[in-house]
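# nightly structure sweep
# worker-07 picked up a monomer target from the shared queue
# config: single-sequence mode, recycle default, output format = structure tokens
# input follows
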Amino acid sequence: MIKKTLNKLAMVLGIFLMFGIIMFPEMRDVIGKLMDTLLKPLLGWLPIHMIIFVLAAFTGLYATIVQKYTMDWGLMKRVQEKSKTIQKEMREAQLSNNAAKIKKLEGQYAEMMGDQMEMFKQQFKPMLYISIISIPLFYWVYLLISQNPDATMIFPFWGEQKLDATVFWVFQYWLFWYFMCSIPVSQMTRKALNIGGMPLDTKV
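# output follows
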């Protein structure tokens, strides 16, 4: 009972963090400032770009571990293999104008939709758990960058750039660096845990 209650509370918190920010944009600064009271001491130990590296690596590791133990990877593999098989057989049936086989495969595809819906549920649940950690950290980094507009970092090919400068559109350098740190850690952790690629990406 306690486990189920905690699970529901975690999911509600995850939903709030994922969608509540859209309805209440001011919560971004509130969350950032709350995290600032906990994480600001890091500024005395590391430069900002290394803080981003550590947090991005941590969220990448955390997200992968959550996915490992909250998703049915056997189901994912079975559905993906079944989908490929049906698609291959459908192409062959269409090329040979085999109407009977096409009708049979359409029925199999309709049955598979239930499994695909279960796959979506399998992917959505860990997103809520991940958001509990990743979104507060992400908004603290956002606050940190806004408080240190002169923070810079040297990038390959681009040279020294301000972290709040724009790479393209609204995509800033600090955000680019964040994802460049998070993705390799996620991939290495997946390899180590033998869970392969993630069909739906959930890091902030």
